[in-house]
Amino acid sequence: MNKFLIVCMTLCLAACQNHTIYHLYQPVESTGWDKGDTICYTYPATGSSIPLQMEIGIRHKDSYLYRDIWLSIVQQEQVDTVHLYIANENGNWKGNGIGEMRVFTENLPVKISSKDSIHTIRITHIMEEDTLKGIHDIGICIKERP
Question: Measured at the alpha carbon of residue 6, what is the angle toward residues 5 and 9, in degrees to the nearest 5?
Fold first, then answer.
């Protein structure tokens, strides 16, 4: 078998493994993310009882002042508090990016139910600072668990 065919088959198989149910980034106000601002995501049920996982994405500028962020994630009647380190101990950003913008993603230990007809997830920051500067977008990606 030639190398081209093997590479094509491998890419096709890898593409089939991405079982994304929902993926969306929501922008934060250009003046900053106020403590009272809630970012909402609504997506339909999968129609099955397949276990799901949630990944969060944070697009931020180099001007973000902290190496971490605390988030409250509310879905139906479940509230989760998540503490994410978007920079290491030396202050180097963990996310990828070009220029001043970075994208940090991480799988969350949040349980996602696939039983309800419509899912709503609400995310707020729970940092001490009232307005977070440097956060550009917050995104979620709901996938079938591997």
Answer: 85
- CA 143 from chain centre, in angstroms, equals 11
Q: What stretch of H or E contains 111?
A: strand 101-112
Instruction: Quote the Cα angle for 72-33-123, to 5°.
Output: 25
Buried b (16+ CB within 10 A) or exposed e, 33-67: beeeeebebeeeebeeeeebbbbbbbbbeeebebb
Neighbouring CB atoms inside 10 A of 123's CB total 22
For 101, the token pair is 């913008």
| Structure tokens, 109 | 């230990």
Q: Is the dihedral of CA 49, 75, 30, 91 positive or negative?
A: negative
pLDDT higher for 138 or 21?
A: 138
Q: Which residue has the tokens 């106020």?
A: 34
- Judge whether residue 51 has pLDDT over 50: yes
Q: Which amino acid is it at 17?
A: Q
